[in-house]
Amino acid sequence: MTNVDVLAAGVLKAGTLDGLPNGHFVDGAFTPSTHNKTLESYDPGRGEAFASFAAGSAEDVNQAVESSKRAFETVWRDTAPAERGRTLMKAAELIRANLHRLAIAESLDSGKPLQEALGDVGGAARTFEYYAGACDKLQGDSFPLAGDYIGYSIHEPVGVTAHIIPWNFPISTAARGFAPALAAGCTVVAKPAEQTPFTALMLAKILSDAGLPDGVCNVITGLGAETGAPLTLHPDVDHITFTGSVQTGRTVMKAAAEDITRVVLELGGKSPVIVLNDANRDEALAGVMGAIYENAGQICSAGSRLVIERGMHAGFVEELVKRAESLRIGHGLTRPDLGPVNSAAHLDKVAGFVERARAGGATIATGGSVTTDPETGKGWFYQPTIIDNASPKDEAVREEIFGPVLTVQIADDAEHALALANDCQYGLVAGIYTQDFGKAHQLARRIDAGQIYINEYFAGGIEVPFGGNKKSGFGREKGIEGLKSYCKTKSIAARIA
Length: 497
Prior knowledge:
By secondary structure, the chain is of the alpha/beta class. The chain folds into 2 domains: 3-267, Aldehyde Dehydrogenase, Chain A, domain 1, CATH 3.40.605.10; 272-461, Aldehyde Dehydrogenase, Chain A, domain 2 (3-Layer(aba) Sandwich), CATH 3.40.309.10. The protein is built from 16 helices and 24 strands. α3 runs antiparallel to α5 and α5 (114-134) packs parallel to α6 (170-184). 54% of the residues are buried.
């Protein structure tokens, strides 16, 4: 066993991880809630509470925002870009130094398999490394005016930024928001999901240890109504980055409208994976499996709709069923192929979609039932499920299930596949499998989505901008586009003669 697996086994035996953060992180230190209330955090692999955390209030939020505003105005805004870069690079080093502990906390809190959590933490380190290198390269433009004039632009930090972090990728989403905001010279107030509070708190402490001044990154934990809502409504918040459901995204937009606060919204998805007859079959099979069963399908950009050309359909789905049925289900810390869903409420939601599909006559090719960890009989698990030959009108095809449930739609040809792919209220990502490179790029241009993967689902990295169209939201994270989200452009023109 590797060192991380030995540590994970000990945590699994103890039922908790020692030394988890206690309190909010404000002004460079852990502080209790003003009301001294706590909430329990649950291990989805067992369906049992394993730790408690601070239940914040509007008063806690106000203290955090005031702290971040003060730090922005007195310290961080005017810190030299190169110095900001050194701090973020040190944070990347510390994240890697704490890789095992962060990954175990992430797996225990979210339920995801340990190997996926290790990848997420590594990706978080890479995110800080990437934006550390961008701090002193955020350049403006000069404008070609007449000879008696000079014109140029500069990028300025927007100010205090609020980050509402989802439960499916806690440390990844925190990093892709924190790092560019801090690189641009903004300060951060974050509210992680109440289901997964710990790695955001641990990340804030790591940033402090890396030399980030007090107040530049604050984290408040608690329920959405008691902490998230006051944060999005706070008049001293200059920007909101939200990742979550469409319904909550609407609420965030309405709150932002009160003070004309800037927003970036990364919302739902129902992403298609197009497989054409000439695709490399083995590559496509592996891609489709990963697209829907990674993190038990709890990914905004999951490839939850297989749109497959008719000639490939029967044998491809038959093999998918075999592979799905061979997946090992288990607690995240045991490195299973498929971990649990995040909560009992979410398990009921996923099951409800499949039950309604079954009642409507859908063909359930495999799965379709709630289950448990076969070793313990505990946890919130759902079988890997495939709904074959689904209609574009089916609820399971049109709505985001956010679980290990794949719907299959049959296309007559590439044009039909394109029409099926675009027949959706969401437009986050799409995948294409074909050996005809010209056809792949033609489809990529015509699919209405923010990001397209060709012959490898989830291709790319922090360098590639990410965000959606239609009801998947707007604005971009990752890449230089993500950095610009935290900047306001100022244009300057002067007569010089």
